[in-house]
UniProtKB/TrEMBL annotation:
InterPro entries: DUF247_pln. Pfam families: DUF247. It comes from Populus tomentosa. This is Uncharacterized protein.
């Protein structure tokens, strides 16, 4: 299976955005980090929960979440860095989905 992944590596490597530890911190994906941060902030602003409460929820599950990744994929990430990454990426994904759904609804309303 790993041989197939290596042959098709371009199919798995992100072009614009990194989510999770596998490609975290790669320089070619750094530009998108600012956009992720902006979208994550928008998510928190529209949430009824405090950012600290949301962060605490991620902290509660981050150790377990880290166990689902390949052993060496989280090397170099301290526990708090991993938690911060999961917190930012999770909020980014939720905001991205929200924006896609909203665009779809608005497009349907325009039709």
């Amino acid at each position: 299976m790993l041989g197939v992944i290596e042959v098709n590596k371009d199919c798995y490597d992100p072009l614009k955005v990194s989510v999770g530890p596998y490609h975290h911190g790669k320089p070619e994906l750094k530009e998108m980090e600012n956009i992720k941060l902006m979208m994550a902030r928008q998510f928190v602003q529209q949430s009824e929960e405090l950012v600290e409460d949301l962060h605490d929820k991620v902290t509660e599950v981050s150790n377990e979440a880290g166990q689902y990744y390949a052993e060496d994929s989280t090397e170099g990430l301290e526990d708090e860095q991993f938690t911060q990454m999961m917190f930012l990426d999770g909020r980014f994904i939720l905001r991205f989905i929200f924006c896609l759904l909203r665009m779809t609804i608005l497009t349907r309303m325009d039709e």
